[in-house]
Structures are given as structure tokens and as C-alpha cells.
Records
---
Amino acid sequence: MTGVHDGIDPAAKLIAFLAAGIVVATTPGWQPLNLAVFGAMTAVLLMGFKAPLGVVAKRLLAVSPVVLLSGAARAWQAGDETAGLAVAAKAGIVILLFAVLTSTTPVSSLLRAMRRMGMPNAVGSVIALMERYVHLMGEELRRMRRARASRTVNAMGLMERFHSEGQMFGALLLRSWNRSDRVYQAMLARGFTGDWPGGSRRVWGLREAGFVVGMAAGFGWARWL
Amino acid sequence: MHIADGIFPLAWCGAAHAVTYPLIYWSGRKAQPAEIVKMGLLASALFAVSLVHIPAAGTAIHVGLLGLAGIVLGVRSVAVVFSALLLQALLFQHGGLLALGVNALNMSAGALLAGLLWRVRMGNAAVRGFAAGFVGVAVPAGLVGMEFTLAGYGKGFLALAGLYSGVAVLEGVITSVTVGFLARTRPAALESAFMGEDGRDGSA
């Protein structure tokens, strides 16, 4: 699906969304008008970016218990329901903003952008490997659990189950340990020198600069309405 | 235990980011390429395990294995924990990007303390494994509870953190079994392979 953001450097998108998130998060207290404008602007971004609504809704739903609990606790503590509403609304808008960004920009592009922006090499490399191998490890663990289920006739008690899971996790760690040696040899053969490529630095054009300035100015304007 | 964006004051989030980055550099210093690949693969395995739900007492728990990460990865666990949290924030929105520093500090504290407890040779491997698994959950939960209290959300979150002690016991049991298995099959995995003092790869 194409959206207005197509072709914009992911680094510019990341900076623009971070700036917007910071503006929303630093808005003091319960200011319904400002929060409504933030919400409307986020909705415009959601539509403009053509974010998959199902994915965004699922992500919002997953974090909603933490947000609602925090809002309720703040309202209870302050003896003022608007204090709780402010926390829940601001958190909800910031989460929605980042949900729009991460559901419309490939994680690998965002990671490459972060790498270019100075993310430590160890972190960039570990994430790149995780992105590649986490599904593989997950599938391996599922296979091991299926094999156990097919060999276990009697239902296991709690401690038996924990013992079995612990051994299985150990076996998975060992497999990943052994696999890492093979992966490293294969990477060496392909010219790996220890540095993970972050991609070439892109020169920002008018679109990137306009997007960052526009987002920051738009949310800044809404903050000081 | 993953704090979302907009919950804590931005100044806290900024300060936590400022503390986290030097910690990450310290954690990943002198890491050899072979070691980084090992960190990536072990992190993938730990991440995959953390997505598993284990039926227990009519409900299901999911393990974080921060204690095991501390045992196996030592000081390198900070870089690995940060990487896993960043990936979770990007993929599932579990924990915010602005709050990433706070989350990383909370979780890393548990992993580092677990690694330290493991390396203090008191008691047998099963006991040390249990202690490491326990603090891997209890320390982050306690820190999160304390932070919510200090941020003005009331003491209820401290009580909620107390509920995590049950999960911490279960995680202690699992970690104890896992290190027992590793001690029997691949003791090298439990040695101080990732302490990083001299940047050596401890896979030998």
C-alpha cells in the first residue's frame, strides 16, 4: 500500500515522529482542545500513511491495560479524574503515533536509519541477527514442544512441566550456541568484518526537511494553542 | 513490565536514555565479531522462549529468562536486553520508544544482578540458578513498582510488583533446571564467556 510517506528517508520519519511524541508527552495537564487536535492530527497521519487499521488496533489493544491502569491510578491518587484522563489520552496518542510509524515502515529500514544515526554497532548487529533468526528459533522451539507432546502419554504435573520446559530451553540455547559457530563461518566466507552495514547516508531533500519541519511545527502549534 | 510512552515524565525518559547508552557501549566493548554473532543467536533463542506461554495453575505465564541471560551473557546482557526491547517496541509496541531507556535499565538491572549472583560461587548450581532466575524477575518488577510510586501513581503498583514474586519463584525453578541441563551438557556455556574483560570469545 502506498501512502504520502513513500520515498521519505526512514531517518526523517523517525525524527519527525519522535519530535511529535515528545511534544504530546510534554503537554502539561488536562487540555482537551490540545489533545483533540493532537488526536485529529494523528488520525490524519493514520489515513495519509494508509496504516493497516487492524494491525494498529491490535497494538493499541495490547498496550491498553497498562495505559488504562496508569490513568486510573493517577486519577485515584490525585483525586481528580482529569489527571487520569490526561495520562491515558497522551499515552494513547503517543502509542498511536508510533504504531502508525512502525506499521508503515519496515523494521529493517528503521533499524538501518538508527544505525546511520549512531546506534552502537553491537546493538545493530544483534538486532539484525535477531530479526533474521528469531522466527527460526521460534519454529525450532515449536517443533521440540510438538515432539514432546507426541511422546508424553500422561498429563504432566506442574513441577514436571516446569522441569521439562527448563530442559527444553537449555536444549534450544545449546542449538543456538552451536548454530552461531556455523553462521559466523558462513558470514566470514561472505566477507563479514564485524561491522553491520547501515546503508549509505542519504542526502535529505525538500520532502524530508519539509516532513520533519511540518510535523514538528504542526504538533508544536497544537501544543501552544 | 514494559512501560508505554507517555506514562512517565519525559525528563525521566531522557535521563534513562542518557544513562543507558554509555552502559550499552560498556556492555558491548571489545566484542569480537564471533561473539556478536553468538550474542545475536542466543538473544534470538531467549526472545523465542519469552513468547512461549506455559500453563500454570489455571492460567498461563510467560517467562522472560532475564536471569538466564545474565548467567550466559554476563555484562553483554545489557546490549542484548536493549536490542530485544527495541525490537519488541518496533514490532509489537510492547514498551515505548521514549520509555525505552527506562525499560532497558529496569530489565538490565535484573540480568546484571543475576549474572553477578551466578558468579559468586556460593551454593551449588541449582541454588545459584534459582537465585539468578528469581532476581531476574523480582528486581525489574520492584524497580517498576518503585518508579510508578515515585511518578505519582500511588503505592498500588508496589503491591502489584509484589505479586510478581510468585512468577519470580516459577522463573527461578525454570532457570535452575535450565542451568542444570547446561552444566551437564555444555558447561562452557555457563563459564564467564561474556564477561568482556579482554574481549575474548569464550566459546572454546
---
Amino acid sequence: MYRYDAHDQQLVNERVAQFRDQVRRRLSGEISENEFKPLRLQNGLYMQLHAYMLRVAIPYGLLSTAQLRALALIARRYDRGYAHWSTRQNVQYNWPKLEDVPDILAELAAVEMHAIQTSGNCIRNTTADHLAGVARDELEDPRPYCEIIRQWSTFHPEFAFLPRKFKIAVTGSSSDRAAVRVHDIGLRIVEDPDGPGARGFEILVGGGLGRTPRIARRVRDFLPRRHLLSYLEAILRVYNQYGRRDNKYKARIKILVDALGVDEFRRQVEEEWEHIRDSALELTDEELARVSGFFASPAYEALESSDAMIQGWALGSDRAFGRWVAANTRLHKQPGYSVVMISCKARGKAPGDITADQMDGVAEIADAHGFGQVVVTHEQNLVLPDIKSSELHAVWRKLEALELAEPNVGRATDIIACPGLDYCNLANARSIPVAQEISESIDDYDYLHDLGELTLNISGCINACGHHHVGNIGILGIDKQGEEFYQLMLGGDAGEDAALGKIVGPAFQRDAIAGAVRTVLDLYLARRESADERFVDYYRRVGAKPFKELLYARS
Amino acid sequence: MTQQMVTGAATADGRPIYMKRDHTWTDRLADGHVTLDQDELARMLQSARGDEFVVCDPYVIEVLVDRARPQPASLREKIRASGGPTIAIAS
């Protein structure tokens, strides 16, 4: 993984010292909250319902075990013993005291981490496929490009005050696990159609969720990779100049693309790009090789394929282990190795929360059985990317002891949920209790696994941090005259066939939403053509009508 | 008319605090000053805004008073006043 050089470390250390002085001045009364607020936000420090919240950047979700242990230490020493994985591969602490935040940032700097650009109208953490570097369907590892984008965008003076926040995601695989079509810019690594072996990017712009959800529009079929930064800069320049600043709800780049139309937007970007395409922004082969060197594959042992063994376990007589293998492991590019998905969605727990002890335990497993790396997913889970398949049973046992072996990754109870009204200042309704109630209502693992691949996403307000628009089943909490209600959406998809869910009918009361979800699941199970027809495929085939008839016939 | 009080987030740690009759602050909503008097409320809010080294972003909330005990009218303020989320935190 990438290691800081002297410049990176100095930059982060200086920021810690700067913020320490700003906090001192705030607490001593030298500066007001109005003066302090933009400064704290530039360091990821929000004010939430009960306390400050600190969001820490995890570039493209990748952590060393030293970093994970530091996150555990911070949770234990400065917070309430736990942390929360966000839906953009970052980590959030819900209870820091203001006077402790400079010390927390110093702890982070000591392990090459920070909270810079995790808030504000700037380029945020670039996210990536959580199986980057190990996926079988990967054309090229996206992480070197993410790191190059991170270095280009960190403290970029021209883009420090954009019209609104800006999010970039990159994937190098045919399966889109990075949700690139619902980002401000989505990058797909593709082969050059005119030059076999040469690689570049498909450029998607103007995707996003929130109050105006949009699937990104294709701005370029192919961009040679040497032009990556100049083309990104051209897009950002057009957005920075013409994006709306008079209305924060119409300030994202998706609104600009809507207003101009994708053809005119493309024309303006290409025109801007002509001025800078052959500038110092060119990504040379030498620089790409230098950065790629940080992401070289670890020293795998030469092993026989374990695919048949894994399939045998998944269908074997040890049903507890078999269920876990089936749901929580993925085939690895390297023969004899597996990818382990760690569910942070134990039944009845808050989705994405993890205790300090669990973080330390995962770090121990990654050191003992892997190569000392852990990945955070935007679905609020963790990945152990390089586990020998022969050691899967031992890893499963250790995860069980940590209460991190819920066999539900990619299943209906692997619920993405924002913090909602339990923590968030912006929320209208609670998300976590709804997620808990749904997961507790699906108490039969055979039923859960029979449902198969299914995403269920919950947001507590229209800002859509829980990505409800792109859940196969999406739930949006709303406030109706002081009462929590929940809209139910069906048919969303964050993957390569990205789609926005459609509201199925009138919102449900708080005590009815879990039952409505169960009705939807039961109907799908009863009427699908076969177990191979996924929920989203069934919905695409039959539409909302049968669901609507059953859901509202009862009310 | 609904009664009202002034609240905000403590500068030190962001916890919810409530203004008392003497314009100092308390962690307990029940000890906050409740009023129907809009002029008094305006004076409280002005005082709170001048006290920003103790409190951030003060604002007015509606409360329902039952047997001399104020209760927040909205779910959001009920959750704030409860001191934490409505779910068990990870442990």
C-alpha cells in the first residue's frame, strides 16, 4: 500500500499543529463559532445531535493493521469504544471532545492518516472497488489511480471551494462494486478499443443520489490514461466556473450536466481540456509505475486452486461454516487464496458499527492469516483480501469469537444504513432501529440464503447517505407532522446496470415498515421463476404492480 | 400557544444544553427555562448568541409542559434530550 513520503508527512503534521492552535483559540474565546466552523469542517469535524463527529479519511478504503489498531486506540481512548464505517469507505467517531481532536489527529498522523477533505465543498475521499487488487474479473488495479487522484486533489488550490462537495469513484473490474454510476465522476478502466493492450478510462459524470438522484452520463468512451489528471481538471474547471452557487440544492455537477445537456457539457470540457492536455498534468509511465509499485501483489505461495474445496464447504454438512463460506467469501485471483468479507451487520446491531476490541481482533487475523491489510467497503463491511483458503475455517472461528461472522454479506440483512435521527443533525427519521427490526425479523438463515443476492438500503433523510435510491429495496425516512414515516422503493441498483428505485406507494408508519419489507420478500420468494432469478431481476420482469397490490390491499 | 425554550450544543463537547432563567446553561432539559413570552424568548436567544464560547448555534424549541415538567415536542429534540441514540451503542 502507499506509504507517505517526507512531503506527505510534513503536510499532515503541519495540519495537526495548525488545527491544534485553532482549537486552542476557539476554547479560549479568541475566535467565534462562525469563524471556527469552516476550519473544523476542513478537518472533518461536524456538530451532530449529541456531540461532535469526526470523519477520518481512509483512501480507497485501504488500511494497514497498524492503522486499524490506531483507529481502535482512538475509539477506546478518546471516544466510547466504537466507531462507524461510513458509506464512502471512511470511519466516523461519534463522541469526540473538542479539546481531544488535535490529539486524535496526531494519533492519526503517526500512522499516515488524517481527516483532511472529509467535509466541505472540495474533492472528497476517492473510493474504489473493495476487491481491488484481488478480484478475478479485474482488468487493472484501480488503487494506483486513486492514489494519484488523492495526491492531485489534496489541497488543490483551485478546487478548495467548489460549488458543492465532489466525489470520485474508480473501478477496474467488469462488475461495478464501486457504484461509479452514482458519483460526480465515475471512472472505469477499459481497454483502448483502437489499440489492443493500451488502457484508459471510460468517463462518467453527473451521477449522484440526494434529493435529485441521477445515473451518471457517459462523457467519454475512452480516455488514454496519461490524460487522467488533465481531463479531471478540465471537468472540475467547467463545474467550478458554471456550477450553481446560489442554491446548495442545485449545486452538484449533476444539475449542471442536466442544465447544459451532456453534449454541451462534453463540448465545454473538451474545449477546456485542449488548453491543458499536454501540460505538466500528464501522467507519465514512470510516475504510474512508481505509484503502482506501492500496490504490488504480496508474496503469495504457489498453491493449487481451491475453488472446488470452497464449493464443497459451501454445500457441505457443516451448515454454519457452509453458510458463511457461501455468503462471506469471494473467489480470489490467486489460486489457493480467498477473499473474506467481514459482516459488520450482526443481527440486531447498528449497521457499520464496530468496537475497538473487534478492530484489534480483525487486525490480529489480518496479520496472522493475511498480509496485514484490511479494506473498508462502501457497504459498511470489511474485507480481508488475502486469506489462504486452507485457513478459512480458522479465520471463521476467530471471527465468530469476535461476533463478526454473520453470514449475510450481499444478503437482505446486510443493510446499508445512515446514522439517521439517532445521531445526525440533518435526519428526519431514524434508520438504525428500522434496520435492526428488519434484520431481527429475518431470523431464519435458510430463508435469508434462499432470498439470495439482494441489497436493502435505508436513509433517514433525502440527503441519501444510506444510498436508498440504489438499494434493490430502498427505504427513506420522512417526517410527517412530527411522526416518522418510511417510503418504500423497489428496483434500485448500484452496479453495472445502475438504476434508481421507484416509490411503490404511500409511505408506511414506523411500526409497519418492517412488515412491508417482509411482504415484499415473501412475494418475491413465492413468485420468482427460479432461485437463479435475483430479486432485482424479478422486479425488472414484473414491475411494481404485484408488490403494490399486496402491500396496499392490507391497509 | 406552545411553550418554548432555548437550546444549543456545548462548545466543549457538543452535548445538548438548555438555557436557565438566569441565562446560564444546564445539561438537563427539565431545568431549562420555559416561557410563552416572545419578548423574553428573544432576549434569551440574544443572550445565547452572545455566549458562543459556551454554546454553539443556539435555537428555540417547542416544549409541552405536563405537571410542571417540560418535554420536547419533536422526536428530534426528545432524542437529543435523552442524551444518546435510541438504540444500544456497540459494546
---
Amino acid sequence: MHSVTPVRTYVLIWVVLTIMTFVTYGVAQIDLGPFNIVIALAIAAFKMTLVIWFFMHVRTDSPLTKLFVFAGFFWMAILFVFTLGDYVSRAWMPGGKFW
Amino acid sequence: MSTVLQDPQTTETPNYLNAEYGWKSWLLTTDHKRIALLYLISISVMFALGGVFAMLIRVELLTPEGDLVNSDTYNKLFTMHGVVMVFFFLVPSIPATLGNFLIPMMIGAKDLAFPRINLLSWYIYVAGALFAIAAIVMGGVDTGWTFYTPFSSTYSNTFVITAAVGVFISGFSSITTGLNFIVTIHKMRAPGMTWGRLPLFVWANYATSLIQVLGTPVVAITLALLALERGFHIGIFDPAIGGDPILFQHMFWFYSHPAVYIMILPGMGVISEVVPCFSRKGIFGYSFIAASSLGIAIVGFLVWGHHLFVTGMSMYAGLYFSLLSMLVAVPSAIKVFNWTATMYRGSISYATPMLYAFGFIGLFTIGGLTGLFLATLGVDVHLTDTYFVIAHFHYVMVGGMVVAYLGGLHFWWPKITGRMYPEGWGKFSALLVFVGFNVTFFPQFITGYLGQPRRYHAYAPEFQVLNVMSTAGASILALGYIIPLIYFIWSLRYGKPAGNNPWGATGLEWTTQSPPTTFNFDVTPIVTEEAYAYAKHEEAHVG
């Protein structure tokens, strides 16, 4: 049922993951202000996607599996977006003509 | 020819109850029906325990003075009532008992997809319940069932971690049950049992399972973080050590509001089965009811902030949470209208399960509509933490879910046990539950609106009459629960043999014998008609 992924692919993904680990370290040496966290999280998310897609075989699995994997992350995004929506706007004070 | 007459008790056909004997045959069983009964017994014990706490609360509130228990004990009483009832009764109630028993039968399968995981889920549940009971025995918890920080993480001197561990563990039981249902419904439907032909009880449990799988991990993480802060002073929620208490509320309610739909959706599934059967009509708007279950499951995840309106959350967040909370009323209303339309011009009979269904529709509607009051920002400021809130969610949880659970138990009792319960007593206790419930909780809308705060053992003297009504109603309600317990046990031995299909209901579970054999069906059924084809069957019967 599952197609066999060549070993070459796994090695390639492993190499990319290793490189990205060094990139994370390298970027951390430079102070980018508020973008420090953004870059670090973006690299982490990219690495995570590679692991799920290739090592966890989601790439070759059924659309239903893909849907459930996506749903898991989508639900986590709901938690993050709405919670941060509160945090970001908590200090906003009503003012101006609108109010 | 008296020798021809046979005693039905001695000539029972082989079934799941008499297939094996001995305690091992129960505690090591992988039969979904036996596991359902294990759950039924366990959650009934927890329900009784939670009920005892409820009665103690109501007896204390007979008088305005805090005279029966002191305020600390009272805090523990309502906390343990909430923890036990929510996590150890309401969440597992219908899915783990009726769902476990019926879902494989309704889709024409021999068992759930993972029978051993199903048994494991029961053991996990029991382990969690034992932790909760340990917390009670050691001295209780006083944080409220919501475990709000920083009180729970820093200041409470009670057994918070023990109780939280119990809830944490039982969550895995919920996740494994949900996972089992999802895989079973996707993979094990009989030939011809398309998604469009699934009984609505299965749809409702499918939607519930999605919430269980997607939401429960978050409350597990939240309670783990709470334990870390309490045990190791890692600052996550307590502002004194760099945390944010509102973060706890966001994370807690991200699960616990959808958990309300874990509790009510399966109840809606039961009503969708009972109403067409006792109206002798196909369900009105099948696809709308099925879709509204999924709609509730999805939109239910977007509304948790309405529990935080007055706790310091951004008012802009309040705006969109308020709007989204209004939206969840739409799929709920779709169901209520469709059940009502199903009854329209139906041939309605007033059997016990149908009486419970009537009760559910009325009480759930009141519970749902008062939810809209609370979703309205300005009104909520006035009503937060008053008895209005207590009345509102008891109308949904007890008036909705417990009534549906009892209705479902009565509806499928003949299938589960092969015996009928006494119909007269059934109707009488259904009436007691309805009257007792309303007498208990309707006055609380009034006292709450007038300003009686929740979670105090003393109150202003002008609220006494309504509180005495509440306590009197709770006594009637308790009687309404005890009578079915007695006659259900009585019926196991003395009830009339039920036959395979005493209600003339459609659905695969009614095509097998009562009680069913271990593997449900001798031959895998082939489904050739839509669900609830009552009109067709009635025509065949008449013509």
C-alpha cells in the first residue's frame, strides 16, 4: 500500500535538518531585534514539517491521514491566534471619534 | 400442554452476557458491549458520589446562614461536585456507555476497531477516578472544578495536584475512546452503510470524538503546567513569578468549552434516534442534523473566550468571542427545529424514552437561549458568577445531557439486557425528573438575576424562599434518579423478555437478537435503505 521511499531521500532530509540546526545556531549569533524569535520559530517549523512529511510518512499516506494531520495543526493555530488576539489588543484603549 | 411452555429465564439463547462467566471474563473482556457495561457501572458510582455532594450543597443552602458546613468545606463540596460530575460522569456518560455499546452495532460491525484499547480506556478511566476519589478522601480540593490560577497553583492548601492528576489521566481515556470511534466509523461500516445512511447517533458521536481527540490534549497540558507551577514554582500562570493567570483560563477553556459539546452532542444523537421512532416518521432534515453536529464541534472551538469577559481579557477579544458564541446557537437551533418538524403530523406515542426526549427539547432550548444572554457582553457583566450561570449550564448539562442519557438508557435497555423495564414506573420517574429539575433550577435564574453570587455558603435572607424551592426540587430530582436505578436492576431478573425490536425501530442494532451475541451479527448485514425509513415500514405494516 505504501510506496517505498529510497534511503537517499531520508539521508537528504537528515542533511537538511542538520544544516538547519547550524543555521539556527548561526542566526542566534546575530541580534535581529524582534525577528530573533520569528526566525528561530520559522526554522523550527520548517524542520518539523520535514519530519512529519517524510520521516512520519505523511507524504505517502492517504488524504484522510493528511486531513487529520492538518486538522491537528489547524486546531493548535486556533488556540494560538485567538489567545494572542487577546494579548495583542489588551492594552488598546478606546479613543477618537469612533468611540 | 404445559410441558411446551418454557421459562424464558432458563432457555436464553447464547448472548454476550452468558457467553462467559467469572470476573476475568469481565475484567479482561474486549467485547465492546461488556466494556460499555463496565463503564455504565463505574460512571453510575461517580454520578452517585457527585449527587451526594450536590445534596449537601442544597441542604446547606436551605437557610441563608452558613450553618451546616463552614465556608472551606463548602468550597470543597462544590469543587468535588463539579470535578466528579464533569470529568467522571458527563464527559464519558453517553459515548462510553451507549456509544460503546451501539456504534459497532449501528454500523454493522463486530466490535470497535481497537478492542484492547477500548478496554484500556476503561482502566485509564478507573485509574483517574481513583485519584479523584483519593483527593476527596484525603481532604478534598477547594479551587472550583476550573482549577483557576494562581489560587490553585500557589495559594490553595488542598489536594490540587492529586485531583488534577486524576483529571489528566481520565483525559487519556476520553482520547482513546474518541480515537477508537473515529477509526471505527471510518473503516468498519457494513456494505451499503454510506455516510449519508449513518444513524444520527453515530454522526453525533463522531463529532464528539473529534472534539475529544483535538481538545483533550490541551487540558492535559494545562493541568501539567499547573502542577509544574505548584510543585516546582515554574512561573507560567502566577504573576508573582512572571506568569499570566489569564493564559490559564484561555488554555483551560479551549478544552473545557468544547467539552460542553462533548457532553451535549451525544445527547442530541440519542434524541435524533428516539424522536423518529416514537413519531413513526423519517427524521426531518437528516443532512442538516448531521452537518450541524460537525458545525457545533467546529464552531464550539471558537467561543471559549466568553468565559473570560470580566477577567481582564482584551475587550476586542470579547467582541469576537461574543459574536462567535452567538453563532453556535445556529446549529443547535437547527437540531431543535428539525426534531420538532419530525414530530409534526407524526403518529406520536408517549413511551418513556419519548417523554425524556420531550423533556430534553424543552430544557435544552431554555439552557441554550439563556446562553445567548450570557454571550451578550453587557448582560454578562451583570450575570457573571451568579446563580443565573449555574441555572444556565445545569439546564444544558442536566436538563439536556442527563435527561438524554436516561432517555437513551430506557430506549436501548431492552437491547442491552433483553428485558423490559416497567413502563408505568418509567413514565412516573420521567415526570419526576422533569418536575424536580425545573423546581430545582428555574428559581436559580431568578436569584442569579437578582444578584445571588455562586460559590458562597451564605446568602441574603430575601433569597431564602427560592432557595428552599431549589432544595425541595433537588429532592424530587434525586427520587427521579433512584427509581430508575431500582427498576433497572429489578428488570434484569423480573422484567418481561423484550424481543429483538420492542419499539418497531429501524437501525441495524434492532435487527439482531436481544441481548446480542458476542459478535453482534451472525452474517455481516448489507444496508439497502436510508436511516429512519419509518414511512416505508409503516406502509408495509398497514398494507
